[in-house]
Design a protein that fits this description.
4 helices, Glutamine Phosphoribosylpyrophosphate, subunit 1, domain 1, 6-stranded antiparallel sheet, alpha+beta, 7-stranded antiparallel sheet
């Protein structure tokens, strides 16, 4: 299956350390070698980089490692193709505009026989179930709220309802961000760790690299990293429960969704 990486924090921070370990899973320590991508926000501006090469063989991935990007919201993805060929248009994250903001989305899972009716501005460019699901989410939000952005409480509730509808088709782990907040939904596997004072050292699972966060952070920094599987061996990663839709803002969980535990016959 694909894997997800996200970051949400109260001040712009670098994701280089986490991305160093995560990118190794794109063909070196794991099999997700069918493309990769990363999206990060600077205020309302959204930068999106995608590649159909594996993240361990991609010059673009090397640039991300060597030129640290600082952002409050980041979504990254490494792909193992289940639907759609290996191609740029099928590489996550995907991006759309809604309510004057860019939204980015990445999915880990497999939705069987999923062909929602899509119209208007939200139609897929590629051939993945993931992009179809993203377009359905965006279309559903616009249908509910029109051209006026809702409150975050109302947004979370609407996303929970739409997510439950999609998740009935299979495995639907995803991350979604508009640069203000980051949503993360778990069907099967998703974890997060929050880094704040007192900071500690961390050791990556996928390579021999460690960092002392005391040397890089201020006392008031609050940074949450979300990943399909824990990236470090000595931090207290928290597992999502199946069915949870969490909303992160300023580095902390500010809303939790109801849990709907299901047995999945489909794995990807």
């Amino acid at each position: 299956m694909c894997q997800l990486l996200g970051m949400n924090c109260n001040k712009p921070a670098s994701i280089s350390f986490s991305f160093e370990g995560f990118s190794r899973r794109g063909g070196q320590t794991d099999e997700h070698s069918d493309g990769w991508g990363i999206a990060f926000f600077e205020d309302r501006a959204c930068h999106l980089i995608v590649d159909d090469k594996s993240s361990v063989a991609s010059p673009l991935a090397e640039q991300i490692k060597r030129n640290p990007v600082k952002s409050c919201n980041v979504v990254a993805h490494i792909r193992k193709a289940t639907q759609g060929p290996v191609a740029l248009e099928n590489s996550h994250p995907f991006k759309r505009e809604l309510w004057g903001r860019s939204w980015v989305f990445a999915h880990n899972g497999h939705l069987k026989h999923y062909a929602p009716t899509l119209s208007g501005a939200f139609r897929p460019v590629g051939a993945t179930d993931s992009e179809r699901a993203f377009c359905f989410l965006m279309q559903g939000l616009h249908a509910r709220f029109g051209d006026q952005a809702p409150s975050l409480d109302a947004l979370h509730a609407a996303l929970q309802a739409l997510t439950n509808e999609i998740a009935a088709h299979g495995v639907f782990n995803f991350m979604l961000s508009n640069g203000e907040v980051l949503f993360a939904h778990c069907s099967t596997h998703l974890h997060y760790v929050t880094r704040q004072y007192p900071f500690t050292k961390a050791h990556l699972v996928d390579c021999e690299l460690s960092i002392d966060f005391n040397e890089h952070n201020h006392l008031d920094d609050c940074i949450t990293i979300i990943a399909t599987k824990p990236l470090t061996s000595n931090e207290n990663w928290v597992a999502f429960a199946p069915g949870e839709l969490k909303m992160f803002q300023n580095g902390v969980v500010c809303l939790d969704g109801p849990r709907q535990v299901r047995e999945f016959a489909v794995a990807c």
